[in-house]
Amino acid sequence: MVEALINLARASHTSKGARNQPPARLLFASSIAVVRNYGKEFSASSSSITVPEEEMQSPETVVPMGYAEAKWVYECLLGHVGRHLSEEIEPVIVRIGQLCGPEASPGIWKSSEHIPEFLKASNLIEAIPQLEGEMSWLPVDRASRSLIDILFQHDKVPLVLHVENPVQQNADSIMNTLADALGLSPDRKMPYQEWLRKVSSLGVFDSLINFLTNDFQDLALGEIRLDMKKAIYYSKTLQESQGVNNDVLIEYIRRGEKQGMFTKAAQ
């Protein structure tokens, strides 16, 4: 994968053509997982960490998993490219927060992602957890438009930008809407750790349990926040972004049901 990125950078370099042309812009979609542990290293005393739109020099900020570590390596590589080939290539690293399903097209939220898996688990045990915090879900089609805004900017763009929904929404309210759409009783809401134990006992969400135990509350509930001042400046889509409305949330459930995503809850 590193070799592929290097080859892409080289292709971008050679596609520049005439010497008086601006450098070719190469946009790389990175992840919030690269900065998961930023708070532990720099601001451990704060309950909510805001990560700046800048390079991360230390691998200690990264979630210890191959996906996130690979993203960090690519970020470092592109930073090097930007410093040494700036006349030919303009790399832009975009760390993306939590995406959700589309809002303006008939697609569905990918069933293997952790929030759909979270909802499948809740449906099976017929209960949702109590969540404290805020969510910054950004519909995937809106995210795509924001990347297009950045990619085709006429002015030079900073090396690192962050993209998530600048509008934060109450996590418990979002979950209540989704639970209601699934037909789950609000009386079955339980503390998060109790919910996690019940899901773990099913033995069918092993790949999800580690994330839910170690990273979900930081990455999904607003404890790690991405500074977006630069990205908002360069993206009209982000400037106009609003929260995800209830009709869209309910539609995610309806589309998932049509695809057989949610099996009948356990009795």
UniProtKB/TrEMBL annotation:
Keywords: Phosphopantetheine, Phosphoprotein. Residues 24-145 form the Thioester reductase (TE) domain. InterPro entries: Adenylate-forming_Reductase, FAR_NAD-bd, NAD(P)-bd_dom_sf. Transmembrane segments: none annotated. The keyword Oxidoreductase does not apply. PANTHER family: ENZYME, PUTATIVE (JCVI)-RELATED, PHENYLACETATE-COENZYME A LIGASE. This is Iterative polyketide synthase CazM.
